[in-house]
Specification:
136 residues; three-stranded mixed beta sheet; 2,3-Dihydroxybiphenyl 1,2-Dioxygenase, domain 1; five-stranded mixed beta sheet; alpha/beta
Length: 136
């Protein structure tokens, strides 16, 4: 039986957390994240990986033999409603293909899912890591 420490001893919620994406080819991943999506690598030295900054945090890309094995959304970028269509258009202009899949609610129109007041679009990096942009 696993015995967990008292909640007051574990304070992970007080610390920053970042998504970590495994890739098979770091240079190919850099071309996608920097060239296609427009991220700038951070100044932090990361052995065999690249740390990218976002408005409130960031994410790490690193080489691993387990790249592309996660079939769920790895990162969701929160986009203001008035900027969503322009962001999706920019992704398409950069050659990014949007994905669709079966959902219990909402309506797909040209690769964008609308559910109530939220718009969402999914796409994958070259290793199959699933990324999402959404409003709301």
């Amino acid at each position: 039986m696993v015995v967990w420490p008292a909640l007051e001893a574990v304070m992970l919620s007080a610390h920053p957390a970042i998504p970590v994406l495994a890739v098979t080819d770091l240079e190919r991943a850099r071309a996608f994240y920097e060239g296609t999506l427009g991220f700038t690598p951070g100044n932090d030295e990361i052995p065999e990986g690249v740390l990218y900054s976002t408005a409130t945090s960031g994410f790490l890309v690193y080489p691993s033999t387990y790249a592309g094995t996660n079939k769920a959304t790895a990162i969701s970028f929160q986009i203001p409603g008035d900027a969503f269509d322009a962001e999706v258009a920019a992704l398409r202009s950069a050659g990014v293909e949007l994905q669709t899949f079966d959902v219990p609610e909402g309506e797909w129109v040209d690769g964008v899912l609308t559910f109530e007041s939220t718009k969402s679009a999914w796409f994958a990096d070259p290793d199959g890591n699933i990324l999402n942009v959404e409003t709301g």
